[in-house]
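Example 3.2
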Amino acid sequence: MADIPRVRMVNAADKYQKSSEFLNDNAIGDNQSFHDSACLIAALSLEIYLKSFLSERETTELDSGSFLVSEKVVRGHNLLELYNRIPAEIKNHIVAFSREIDPSIDFLESLERYKDYFCFSRYPYEGNIQRITDSEIVSFSYHMGLVTKKVAKIIRQL
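Structure, written as tokens:
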């Protein structure tokens, strides 16, 4: 368990999270459409942070004798379902550190609110699009990054 969450996945989620902040910060005037993209990318970062607690390292030997190391990633986009698949001990740390970092954020309520956002917002031309008018998901993805890193430190000490 010491290699959970997966560092490469956390780094990828961090890049998406920072991109969502950049887009959100620049969603003014003619760039107002950046807001929708910022929220979508924030939802993707949340998904990857959660999946970083669920993936397994996979090593494949290539014909050349070298090895390809990748992550066997859990499938799915529903944030609440992904969270519920995380082992109980890790979930306890996630909720506790979330509360410690920012007591005003109800972690599980936020997951419930955004659980399907990625699926129902990525194709704006479809009729079932889910829109968020505020930037809370961008802030929540930043919060999730902080929580993930704090949980990682505890797990690596075990």
